[in-house]
Amino acid sequence: MQVKIDKSWEVHLQEEFKKPYFKLLTDFVKEEYKLHQCFPKGKDIFNAFNLCAFENTRVVIIGQDPYHGFNQANGMCFSVNNGVAFPPSLKNIFKELETDLGITYPNNGNLESWARQGVLLLNATLTVRAHQAGSHQNKGWETFTDHIIQLISQEKKDVVFMLWGGFAKKKVKLINSKKHHILTTGHPSPLSANRGYWFNNKHFSKTNFLLEQAGLQPVDWKV
């Protein structure tokens, strides 16, 4: 795995890339991609960072694992490639956007426009074997992405962290709540949403309110 990551991140991560765990992780990912069908494509593994520069990052959404179906994952959590049917969680995200901000349900699930505005769409694990959810967990990715969350917490201020579901909420311990804003709610998956833990959370309007209060540009959440 060759790490091709935006220079704005690379300058902060040079030492992390030299650590023994990252070498083991790199060897594991290379071998997996050689022996198995894995997602996302190699060139897209660090897409979340390449589309959202460090200095532009003002919102962080945390996912768990890339989509493991063909042509779905594109290196950003909850996002899918152009023309791909929306997974259930993404459908519920768009339904909440419609309710919260009146944004028309889109015909495209690629969230690149969010990333380019400073929304870091960060999966805790950046790769997965086809049709095997969680297959690349506990191999080092979580150490790396936890470091990313801590880096943002330490080096920036007034970032809005959107923590959806139990897994993401555990990351609260990595974030300085005196410097940043933390929004928590249920996961947008049907299981959680149908139990009443997702809809009407108004995270998108709340995020824009918090950004504006900090003198930052709100996000145009239209896809």
UniProtKB/TrEMBL annotation:
Catalytic residues (positions): D65
Domain of life assignment: Bacteria
Pfam families: UDG
Annotated signal sequence range: none
Compartment(s) where it occurs, according to its Swiss-Prot or TrEMBL record: Cytoplasm
Function field: Excises uracil residues from the DNA which can arise as a result of misincorporation of dUMP residues by DNA polymerase or due to deamination of cytosine.
Protein name: Uracil-DNA glycosylase
NCBIfam families reported for this sequence: PRK05254.1-1, PRK05254.1-2, PRK05254.1-4, PRK05254.1-5, ung
SMART domains named among the record's database cross-references: UDG, UreE_C
Enzyme class: hydrolase
Taxonomic path: Bacteria, Pseudomonadati, Bacteroidota, Flavobacteriia, Flavobacteriales
Reaction(s) the record says it catalyses: Hydrolyzes single-stranded DNA or mismatched double-stranded DNA and polynucleotides, releasing free uracil
Organism: Lacinutrix iliipiscaria
Presence of keyword DNA damage: yes
Family from the record: Belongs to the uracil-DNA glycosylase (UDG) superfamily. UNG family.
Annotated gene: ung
Assigned EC number: 3.2.2.27
UniProt keyword Hydrolase present: yes
GO molecular-function terms, A-Z: uracil DNA N-glycosylase activity
